Amino acid sequence: GQQLNQSPQSMFIQEGEDVSMNCTSSSIFNTWLWYKQDPGEGPVLLIALYKAGELTSNGRLTAQFGITRKDSFLNISASIPSDVGIYFCAGHNQGGKLIFGQGTELSVKP
Amino acid sequence: KAGVTQTPRYLIKTRGQQVTLSCSPISGHRSVSWYQQTPGQGLQFLFEYFSETQRNKGNFPGRFSGRQFSNSRSEMNVSTLELGDSALYLCASSQTGASHNEQFFGPGTRLTVL
Fold first, then answer.
1. pLDDT (tens digit, 9 = 90+) per residue, B49-104?
2. Which of B97, B99, B104 is the closest to A31 by Cβ?
3. How far is C-alpha B18 from the chain's CA centre?
4. Does A1 touch chain B (CB under 8 A)?
5. Using CB atoms within 10 A of its CB, is residue A60 exposed (0-12), middle (13-18) or buried (19+)?
6. Which terminus of chain A has fewer CB atoms gathered within 10 Å of its CB, N or C?
7. What is the Cα–Cα distance from B100 to B102, expressed in whole angstroms?
């Protein structure tokens, strides 16, 4: 089936560092979404992207919808301990299904 | 507005049993989607309901079924449970389910099959 390749799988960083993660696909997606999931909870939507080339910020988070519509990245600036969690990219494919990446587990050392 | 709620939060069943999970979407949302999350497979789409009709379906066996009621609440049923069905089951709601509508997730139901 259709897949999103998300990288890296995990990251261990120092508090204050910037973080970058990305998702790629061999297929075109109509939207790209970035979610964060804390242990025992459902994913929470961070940023939604609807147009190729769109760059959107939400506080310290910035995400971009790739111009080819086959990739997206998420940057977190000046990380803090509460940024710890699993970050998922997701995209709506041409059939309207929401497909998820495998997740990037972020650990932040104070 | 209240968020998406799911009941129960935790469930323990044995192989061969069946289970029903419930999801109440955000008020005004008519689309409800269900996902299975496991460490090995990540988040996998099960199905989507809109206006009491299944509109989209993932690649799961027929043991997994669902329905939606006129108030948009949805239930998911798994019959003849297998050990591999142990997972976090998440439901998400959106206004219409169209790709420009954002999906909001509930906290999930953690199912353990013994």
1. 999 999 889 999 999 999 999 999 999 999 999 999 999 999 999 987 666 678 89
2. B99
3. 15
4. yes
5. middle
6. C
7. 6
